[in-house]
Amino acid sequence: MKTMAAIGGLALSTLLASAELPRAQEPTGTKAPRTGENSFTEGQAKAWLENAGYTHVAGLVLGSDGVWRASARLKGVPALVRLDYQGNITEH
């Protein structure tokens, strides 16, 4: 009986681990944003940037290339950021 409970607990923890929400990628400033149809709403784009550590996210604009652009701060330093449809964040 203990073995069955342990197997059930392991299966449940594996299921929960695989159900995690995607995490924002660390900003590197070197990857070009990928163009394409973007399904992020403005609120989702702002939350994605904030989850990556950006603060004071302002002026979010979705370009015709499907890339969100905004001004923000990272560790207090002003930055112009881009967010593509895959969640890649770049600074420009």
TrEMBL record:
Keywords, ordered alphabetically: Signal
Signal peptide interval: 1-19
Entry keyword Signal: yes
Residue ranges of the region described as Disordered: 21-43
Name of the protein described by the UniProt record: PepSY domain-containing protein
